Structure formats: structure tokens, C-alpha cells
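Below is a concrete protein record.
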Amino acid sequence: MRSLAAEILIAVPFVVGVAAFGGTAAASPDTLTDLLGPREIAVGEALRGAATGSTGVELNPSSIGLNRELVFEGGYGYRGADSASLVGVSACDSTNALPGCFFYDYAGENPQLGDMTLHRTTHVAGVSLSRMVVPRVLIGATGRYYDFSSDMAGDTSGSGTTFDLGATLRLTSSINFGFSGQNLYSTTRSPAFPRTLGGGFYARPVTPLALSFDARWRVEGPDRSARFGGGADLFLTGSDSQDGYSLRGGALHDNGLGATYLSAGLGFSSMSWGMDVAGRREVKGGDETLIIASMRVFGPRLPASGVE
């Protein structure tokens, strides 16, 4: 019988091919969603309370310090609505006194306007850092440099630097609260990097099952919308207790877009490597489809009292 990891590897090309037949409406540039990875996509973007590894870069940098591991990750996503390619690579080390990540993200979009194909590109690179200030309380920050270019009418090309802040409260060994502010300060304001505030709840009612719920609000510009999401992650241990499989599902609603999404994902993790794949489908307000996958390679992985 094939292992689940093998089934995932076989399924990825098929699912990506299906995504190519998604909707054709042009999406607006929004790095808050364009640069997310498969784990957070699968659970409705609801991981601010447990954003370990590269997940912390976009959701909550303070949560990077919840575990202790060295991990290198690379991922690719495809969105059919605007033929977008989404690429991310990162190196995260939370085994030292100042956990952090180096990262680079790219979003290349090709929206259709009548018979014309237009282009948008976003390059983002930076560093995220986390620090435990007192037991059960972590703070973190992200600094990033971006370069955005577009030939779409109404878009403004530019480059600059933005900064995020985050905090995580470990209420108990199984309940976390996470808070973050994104693009709180920017050297150059860009609609693609709006200022937002967000918070999330993460809990493990039983060891294999994690539940999460997040909310995020835009706090500037004409579109001061809110985005709410939640999901579940069931972690199943294989015959080797060091290997495990994640089954994920979630839902997301954006009241500014009037859009509702359903998402699902699969993951495999061992002591040396891991793989995650997720898909999201807009079921109300449009027909956008997103497929994204990533591969992780682990260095040392040490016991920690945080989220594993």
C-alpha cells in the first residue's frame, strides 16, 4: 500500500492542473494574502496563536520562538484567477536565544483586461525575530524591503521598507493567544502593504487535534474591511512515532470582498523533512482557486514547551 506521503506527491501535479481552470477575474494586489504558505491557508489563515517557522513571517513573528528547530523551506503556489505564481523561501532558527527567520517572497500576477494580459510583480525580503520577555509571553518583529511594479491602471509602482510587531501569550500548555500589527510603519505607503491589526486563538483540546480562529482588520484606506477565519489540524502518528501526517481544513470570510472560502490541506513531517500542500476555493462572491505546496528540510529539532 502506498504511504500517504507518496499519495500527496502524486496528487500535487494533478491538483495544480485543476487550479489552472479557476476563475479569470483580476485580483487586487495584496501581500497580506499573496505571501501566505500552505499551513496557514489550509486552516483559514488562522495561525496567529501558533505561527512557528516561516508562518510567523506573515502572521505573527513572536510565535517563531514557540518551538526549537532549524528549518529551511521553499514553496510554490498558483492562483487561477490572475495566473499568479507565488514563491517563498525561508531559513528559520529557533534553537538559539533570539529565534528568527530570513525570508524572500515573490508574487508574479498576470491579470486579464479584455484581450490584454497585464503584469504585476512583488519582491519581498527581510528578517523576523522573536524573544521571550517573561515566561509565557513572547514578542517579535519583522522588517522587510519590498519592490512592487505594475502596468495595471490605478496601481502605483514603488519600493520601501515596512515593519510588523507581534505578541504571543501562552495561557496554558494547550492554549495560546496571538496578536500582530502588520505594516505598522512604512517608509513608503503602498496599497499592496496596508496597515492591519489581527489576533488569534489556538488550542489543543486533545494532543492530536489543534483548533484555531483568527480575525484581521484593515485600519487605513477606503477599504477598512475585516477578515475572519478558522480551522482544525488533526495530526496522526505513523508506524514510526517520529513521523506524522496532518489533515487540515478551514473556512474564511472577507466582508470587504463579500467573499467566503473553503480550504483543505495535507502534510507529512518526519525528523528530517516535511511536505505540505493546501487548496482554497472561493464558494461565495467569486470563483478563485488557489493551490500551494512547500517542502521543509530540518536541522536540529529540540524538545520545547511550545507548539510542536
